[in-house]
Write a structure and sequence with these properties.
Blueprint (H helix, E strand, L loop, with lengths): L7 E6 L2 H11 L4 E5 L2 E6 L2 E7 L14 E5 L3 H11 L2 E9 L2 E7 L5 E6 L2 H10 L4
Parallel strand pairs: 1-4, 5-8
Antiparallel strand pairs: 2-3, 3-4, 6-7, 7-8
């Protein structure tokens, strides 16, 4: 049996158009498609599907349960772009031993981290994952 691959994440919303526009603007995807009722944003081989469902409320009940992490090349520019899209910050941009992290709250209340890893953290992460 082959190893499973994580290829997509589904976000359901009472207002998928608004959520799609926010992600598209805040974190510009490599691809932006519509597949039947889904809006599909592509990020480096992982797809963010945004749809509507009748069994979800307008705000997520447990926003800390799942965080979407976006690795960026320029955290300061990414913060400015996210702020232009309108957001509340759970955690403003901070330096953690040379890597930069911030956590935004999307329009549905989901937590979204933007991360700019330092070269030292990249090497450490790759070594820990056995990808030297």
């Amino acid at each position: 049996m082959s190893t499973p691959s994580l290829t997509s994440i589904m976000l359901s919303s009472t207002d998928p158009e608004r959520l799609h526009e926010w992600y598209r603007s805040a974190f510009p995807p490599q691809t932006d498609d519509v597949n039947e009722e889904y809006r599909v944003l592509g990020y480096g081989g992982v797809y963010l599907f945004i749809d509507t469902r009748d069994d979800v409320g307008p705000k997520t009940a447990e926003p800390g349960r799942v965080l979407l992490n976006f690795e960026v090349d320029d955290a300061h520019a990414a913060v400015e772009r996210v702020e232009r899209c309108g957001c509340e910050w759970l955690a403003p941009l901070e330096d953690r031993d040379g890597s930069l992290f911030a956590t935004a709250i999307d329009p549905d209340g989901n937590y979204v981290q933007l991360i700019q890893l330092s070269e030292a953290h990249r090497v450490e992460t790759a070594t820990a994952a056995g990808q030297e």
